[in-house]
Amino acid sequence: MSLDALKSAIPDYAKDLRLNLGSVIGDSDLPQQQLWGTVLVCAIASRSPRVLRELEEEANAKLSPEAYTAAKSAAAVMAMNNVFHRTRHLLSDPEYGTLRAGLRMNVLGDPGVAKVDHELWSLAVSAINGCGRCLDSHEQVLRRAGVDRETIQEAFKIAAVVQAVGVTLDAEAVLAE
């Protein structure tokens, strides 16, 4: 129902987003936990209150409590890591890359779900946040774990669509004021 409400709110000029939202979620080959964890982390990373409200309820219903918490932890830690590592990468002084980060990231060692699921969610958040270093790192971990490119692409397709829906609906809300 929440997914349907979100799709119906998308304006006609963005009907491709409506169709894409239905297909990346409704026609996904990802297992339910990977799919709905990816949807949840992307809704959080999109920073769109409407998207998060509409998708969180369904994600919460489809995920175990452990997976729900793990997905939120992936969104939280990657919000920090993406800014940190993207900034290190963008600074012209390579010495920053030699300094100790000094940031706690214990959840990466024990996320509470299969490591592959958490990595996939971390990759999706990194796609929304535009951190090339994190994208490369998570993609390499997933590939070494035997995850195929199609599965990885499925995660960043979800990220792209959820982010675009958030941007579109938030813009419409501002324009309607």
From TrEMBL:
- Tell me the superkingdom of the source: Bacteria
Disulphide bonds annotated for this chain are 131-134
Question: Among its keywords, does the record have Transmembrane helix?
Answer: no
Q: What does this protein do?
A: Antioxidant protein with alkyl hydroperoxidase activity. Required for the reduction of the AhpC active site cysteine residues and for the regeneration of the AhpC enzyme activity.
**Record's keyword annotation contains Oxidoreductase:** yes
SUPFAM superfamilies named among the record's database cross-references: AhpD-like
Enzyme Commission number:
1.11.1.28
Record's keyword terms, sorted = Antioxidant, Disulfide bond, Oxidoreductase, Peroxidase, Redox-active center
Q: What does the record list as coiled-coil region(s)?
A: none
The positions flagged as active site in the entry are 131 (proton donor), 134 (cysteine sulfenic acid (-soh) intermediate)
User: What is said about its interaction partners and assembly?
Assistant: Homotrimer.
Q: Which residues form the Carboxymuconolactone decarboxylase-like domain?
A: 94-176
What Pfam families does the database record attribute to this sequence? CMD
Q: Which HAMAP family match?
A: AhpD
Give the catalytic activity.
N(6)-[(R)-dihydrolipoyl]-L-lysyl-[lipoyl-carrier protein] + a hydroperoxide = N(6)-[(R)-lipoyl]-L-lysyl-[lipoyl-carrier protein] + an alcohol + H2O
Write out the GO MF terms: disulfide oxidoreductase activity; hydroperoxide reductase activity; peroxiredoxin activity
Q: From the Swiss-Prot or TrEMBL record, give the protein name.
A: Alkyl hydroperoxide reductase AhpD
Q: State the family named in the UniProt similarity comment for this chain.
A: Belongs to the AhpD family.
